[in-house]
Amino acid sequence: MTDSSSSPAGASTEASTEASTEAMPSPDGLPRRRKPLAKAAIDEEALADALEAEIEAEAALAELTEPEIEESLRARGARLTALEVARLIVDAAEDKKAAEIVLLDVSELTSMADYFVICTGGSERQLGAIGDGIAEKLRDEGVRPIGREGGSNSHWTLLDFGAVIVHIFAQQERDYYQLERHWAQARTVVRVQ
Predict the structure, then answer these.
(1) Which residue of 96, 111, 134, 191 is surrounded by the most CB atoms within 10 Å?
(2) Quick one: fold of 74-192?
(3) Beta-strand relationship, 156-160 and 23-24
(4) What 8-state DSSP symbol labels residue 35?
């Protein structure tokens, strides 16, 4: 008899359990039961916390193992001194076969620039190539010209890099204007023949 009395009580407990849970179909065709809603909400919170902790751990690991990013061109260009920029300009002009390259230190004579680079091109095409070569080499270092005046057909091109001003002349114009003579008090830093 205890069996029959325990079975109705057991049946009512089962019925209440079935009411709070649902059977879900599964891929293998066997019925599955969902967890009660209150317990599922707690499990979702725990799962979310666990996922968040895992993401934070991965981010911390990535920071430790991630290689350093190369500094930007703009930052590298800002780090260069005026003399380093001037020497890069002299190298670029020399690469383009400019003649009579002179680097003058005019920092104590004027406030418009610290250095002048003066060079000569043999033809109109070479004047343009020298100007483009200088601008390209400095762009690769993160330095851009503030302005560019003249062109190959004007026989005088000026590139303004702020602290360094570049004068690219045709031979006749260089002989006529004689900038080195006007700035004779400036110290000659480099002279390439």
Answers:
(1) 134
(2) Beta Polymerase; domain 2 (3.30.460)
(3) unpaired
(4) P
Q: Where are the domains of the chain?
A: 35-66, 74-192
* Residue 102, token pair as written in the block: 């002179």
pTM greater than 0.85: no
- Distance between CA atoms of residues 152 and 130, nearest Å: 10
Task: Give the residues across from 165 on adjacent strands.
Answer: 116, 160
How far is the C-alpha of 39 from the C-alpha of 111, rounded, in Å? 77
State the chain's maximal CA–CA distance in angstroms. 129
C-beta of residue 117 within 8 angstroms of C-beta of residue 167? yes
- The alpha carbon of 3 is separated from its chain's Cα centroid by a whole number of angstroms, namely 80
Contacts of 192 (CB under 8 A, 6+ apart): 90, 94, 100, 101, 102
Place of tokens 């390259």: 101
Q: What angle do CA 29, 35, 40 make, to 5 degrees?
A: 130
Gap between the Cα atoms of 90 and 100, Å rounded: 11
CA atoms within 13 A on the CB side of 6: 3
Q: How many angstroms separate the Cα of 145 from the Cα of each of 86, 90, 91, 160?
A: 12, 15, 16, 6
61 Cβ contact list (under 8 Å, min separation 6)? none
Q: Is 103 helix (H, G, I), strand (E, B) or coil?
A: strand
